[in-house]
């Protein structure tokens, strides 16, 4: 397999992270997702001639990441002060303004500030949007509802492989303006779709209730972070792998990226339907198993059919895993709804940080290895396998804790008539491991 020159494009600019919205405001979600959808190595406007050289593009990526983390960590405080609906509308408007501002690279400082604000909007939308809607959805339908919410990310990925290259043919400024107009239109359509009031949290029921331990949640955070790292080879290097690594050219690489986007569009809904049937824990486990094999396929050189399948499956879980993790957080903290928001915020921050570190780390590995693509996909496979191992270990530990705290079966008692009667205490429903 051919490798590109080691000196070619050594450090890609870090990409925007996922924004979020709600079923009621699906257009805004799709606008945020379009802004946040990852862009393959071969299609990076930020490092194009006459804009910014690669070294400065790295700093712009860091600014976007810093903004995303700031938005994820500070969004709850902003919502508490302004209300969730007002904060979400402000973040949609900010993301739209960032599109238009980026069409005019006045200076590096100008672009740096707007990339930071773009990340800020994405992080806040990711943390606030989906929980605001899912709180109003019956638990039996949250898998499907979460899938519909996160389907917008897949739509953004699919469209980024079609419309954005067409806009780029007219120029970089025109591409940014096109994104801004689309975002403005979708944001306007979704402006009144947000819930105006926060849902009332149910009072904790009396009696024995299993509480999700800190260890279980930490394991989930680690799994989500490892997933984010495991996706990076496909999200950033897939098009480059096909175009240069296999010598098929950029057009062939773009076709695989469109397949990736098609999978990302359907993945959240299919994952949500599965979760509604088997529970979020088991659905997440199955996702890990499929991802292990799908991420490894490019390193095995099994041919075009397998590579197409890999693109679709990984694309499906890049977006499909997000509602599964969100649903798992709600599942583990079902009796503690006040803890769900902070837990999801922590998971989102872990996701963003891990994906950024993996993007830069794998770019370094790629350069130092002389352009070895197979090594990147094997590292991604190892990350997915480690996520599955952590999940299985956490599930086993949780099962042991629940068994240890379960009340013992009562001994039969004899009534006055001499009949044996078992007094079985009423047990609350336990969360599926």
From TrEMBL:
Entry keyword set: Membrane, Transmembrane, Transmembrane helix
Residues that span the membrane, as ranges: 57-74, 86-106, 112-135, 147-168, 174-191, 224-243, 255-275, 282-300, 306-326, 347-366, 378-397
PROSITE patterns associated with the record: MFS (PS50850)
Limits of the Major facilitator superfamily (MFS) profile domain: 1-399
Coiled-coil stretches noted in the UniProt entry, renumbered to this chain: none
Classification via InterPro entries: MFS_4, MFS_dom, MFS_trans_sf
Record region (Disordered): 1-24
Keyword Membrane: yes
Pfam name, any one: MFS_4
SUPFAM superfamilies (UniProt xref): MFS general substrate transporter (SSF103473)
PANTHER family documented for this protein: PTHR23537, SUGAR TRANSPORTER
Protein's name in the database: YbfB/YjiJ family MFS transporter
Source organism per UniProt: Pigmentiphaga soli
């Amino acid at each position: 397999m051919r490798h590109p020159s080691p000196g070619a494009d050594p450090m890609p600019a870090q990409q925007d992270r996922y924004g979020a919205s709600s079923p009621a405001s699906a257009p805004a979600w799709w606008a945020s997702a379009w802004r946040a959808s990852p862009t393959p190595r071969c299609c990076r406007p930020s490092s194009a001639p006459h804009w910014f050289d690669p070294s400065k593009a790295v700093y712009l990526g860091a600014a976007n990441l810093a903004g995303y983390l700031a938005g994820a960590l500070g969004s709850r405080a902003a919502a508490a002060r302004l209300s969730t609906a007002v904060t979400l509308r402000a973040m949609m408007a900010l993301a739209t303004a960032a599109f238009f501002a980026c069409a005019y690279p006045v200076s590096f400082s100008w672009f740096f500030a707007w990339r930071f604000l773009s990340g800020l909007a994405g992080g806040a939308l990711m943390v606030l949007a989906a929980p605001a809607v899912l709180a109003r959805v019956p638990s039996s339908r949250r898998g499907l509802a979460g899938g519909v919410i996160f389907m917008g990310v897949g739509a953004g990925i699919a469209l980024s492989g079609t419309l954005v290259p067409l806009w780029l043919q007219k120029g970089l400024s025109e591409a940014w303006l096109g994104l801004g107009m689309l975002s403005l239109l979708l944001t306007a359509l979704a402006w009144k779709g947000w819930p105006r009031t926060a849902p009332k949290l149910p009072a904790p029921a009396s009696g024995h209730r299993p509480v999700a331990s800190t260890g279980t949640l930490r394991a989930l955070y680690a799994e989500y972070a490892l997933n984010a790292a495991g996706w990076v080879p496909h999200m950033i290097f897939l098009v480059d792998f096909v175009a240069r690594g296999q010598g098929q050219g950029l057009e062939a690489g773009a076709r695989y990226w469109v397949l990736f986007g098609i999978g990302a569009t359907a993945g959240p809904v299919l994952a949500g339907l599965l979760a509604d049937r088997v529970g979020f824990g088991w659905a997440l486990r199955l996702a890990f198993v499929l991802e292990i094999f799908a991420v490894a396929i490019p390193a095995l050189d099994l041919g075009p059919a397998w590579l197409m399948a890999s693109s679709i499956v990984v694309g499906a879980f890049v977006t499909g895993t997000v509602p599964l993790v969100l649903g798992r957080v709600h599942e583990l903290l079902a009796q503690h709804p006040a803890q769900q928001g902070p837990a999801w915020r922590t998971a989102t921050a872990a996701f963003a940080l891990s994906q950024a570190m993996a993007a830069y780390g794998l770019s370094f590995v790629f350069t130092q290895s002389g352009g070895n693509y197979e090594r990147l996909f094997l590292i991604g496979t190892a990350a997915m396998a480690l996520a599955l191992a952590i999940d299985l270990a956490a599930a086993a530990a949780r099962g042991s804790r629940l068994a240890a705290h379960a009340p013992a079966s009562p001994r039969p008692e004899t009534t006055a008539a001499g009949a044996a009667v078992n007094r079985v205490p009423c047990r609350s429903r336990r969360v599926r491991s």
